[in-house]
UniProtKB/TrEMBL annotation:
Organism in which the protein naturally occurs: Mycolicibacterium sarraceniae
SUPFAM superfamilies: P-loop containing nucleoside triphosphate hydrolases
Name listed for the protein in its UniProt record: Sulfotransferase
Amino acid sequence: MRNGIHFISGLPRSGSTLLAGILRQNPRFHAGMTSPVGSMYMGLEQSMSRRNETAVFIDPQQRREVLSGLFTNYYGDIQSSKVVFDTNRLWCAKLPALTQLFPDAKTICCVRDVNWIMDSIERLVRRNAFEPSGMFGFESGGTVFSRISAAASSDGLVGYALDALKDGFFGEQAPSMILVEYEALVSNPGRALKMIYDFVGEPWLAHDFDNVEYAADEFDLALGAPGLHTIRRKVEFIGRQTVLPPQLFHRFDDDMFWRNPEANRHQVTIIRPG
């Protein structure tokens, strides 16, 4: 990657689309919502595994070149003029490979109080009350309890991302990560962005936090979740009451592991409000 590549990962409904919308204001940066590179990467890994009997003819260097070439070829001319930020929840679980493929790459992980993540998901479902969501298999007979349980499962929208985040946070490659709490990003975006710029080693460019634009209407509509990737123009914190029943809202009180200083054994940089 001629001008460099970094990754955006972390938890859903935690500001990754907003962050991409801000970063893309910089003409030197390419950023967006979840790209297809992650799923293609997984497909290549599987096709080169021992599940494929011809994989015995692929040596370790060839594996590296094939996987590295995926990024180079997908971004094509983009990476000749811009720094790429590729977004996918799985990147936190792939740090051992990513740090070998791209030693200078950093992974920006957007995180948030898990209770409020679940609230945000349920709020989106209720906003689109007449259209079953692909986030839950387009099932129309669920309840708030079944939806939250599905999202929290190990292969669910939130559960998988949370496990992947832990995978990276507690692994040896954790120093290549930076965690950005949602409240820090929306309450003081200038401070958060300057810390991100410093972390990835890029010269600062002033951003317009009153006019941030990003939408993926066609993708969201196909998923049955209109508005999933639409962000408000002005970056600001907006307080609200939860729509979740109390027993659901407090179910995830103990899941914000990154807030425990003793758990941060690799001294991962965390951008908190304040």
